[in-house]
Amino acid sequence: MRILLVDDNQTNLVLLSKLVAKLPGCEAVTFSDPAAVLASMPKLDFDIAVIDYQMPNYNGVELLREIEMFDRYKGKPVVMVTADTDMATRMACLDAGSIDFLNKPVNPLEFQARMKNLIALVDARNKLADKAEWLREEVEKATTEIREREEEIIDRLTIAASFKDAETGLHTKRVGEYSHLIAQAMGLDARACSDIRLAAPMHDIGKVGIPDAVLLKKGKLTEQEFASMQKHAMLGCDILRESKSSLLQLAATIAATHHERWDGQGYPRRLRGEEIPLAGRIVAVADNFDALTTARPYKEAWSIASAVEHIRERAGSQFDPECVAAFEVALAEVLVARSTLQDQVEPTVQRFG
């Protein structure tokens, strides 16, 4: 335990140092000049301070107020040594942050008794701080483990869905990466961007509930079949929304809204403008871009320029204009992600109704 002693009287300073030396595990840190104390900060390390009130240049109150300006010293126990019994002086000391007083001349027994009480107080504070830090670390560890499990669940569910709809290839991963980049370009915080990246690949999970005759049909869908295909949005939401996981709840929102349109002509609920959750609006752009630029058995891949122009032209009708603007800002990074996540084998069929 390091005890700071500040007294311009060398005799008093020697006496206090000897008294500190008698306290088990304690070390005196001595200064006879208040200015030297301040010059040593903020590197000066101490646990308790004992400061003389009457000193040249800085009195005890002035020194204490300067010390309290450093965050690392806030809350450190300070004892003021004074021969002044005037209430105004003592109130000034208390206001500055002193928690106790010693009268001059210092009584050795009183000094040691007060120091032992303060040492016990500091020990208790340190143990409480250590426990709080341990609890914080344990909570952080548990939160990280939960997060990792949520991410694994999403990854496993996405893989499971790909067995039903083999045409997706790396489509879901690309949509996740594109959505993440668009979210970043819109200025969303890092956690929100990460959540969208993880949840976006679940946007078409509802296709597991679409009959194979419709999902895998190579020709043009009939009106009735197209209506059946559109059900995948709410099916995906129904699969995910009861989860207590915030990530899966976000995925449910994305599944339900990524086919809504800015002008209210989308499905399944014909939401309009900002009625559509932001994550759904972002994924709508990312999903559309990837669908357009990927070859499918029933269509050729569009050129990058044509797909970008298509999306740009539909800003304000199909897509949120701000999401489209962010997509254009992020386009260079989107193309890098697209190049990295190219399908390795020819897909069998794709339907993005």
> What is the second-level CATH architecture of the largest domain?
Orthogonal Bundle
- Bin the strand percentage: 5-15%
Rounded radius of gyration (Å): 34 Å
Globally, the shape reads elongated
The number of E-state strands comes to 5
Helix/strand order, N-terminal first: EHEHEHEHEHHHHHHHHHHH
Structural class: alpha/beta
Low-confidence stretches: 345-353
Distance linking N and C termini: 71 Å
CATH superfamily of the largest domain: Hypothetical protein af1432
Query: Can you list the strand order of the major beta sheet?
Result: 2-1-3-4-5
Discrete helix count: 15
CATH topology of the largest domain: Hypothetical protein af1432
CATH class category name of the largest domain: Mainly Alpha
Helix percentage range: 55-70%
Report mean pLDDT, rounded to a whole number.
87
The biggest sheet amounts to: 5 strands, parallel
Number of domains: 2
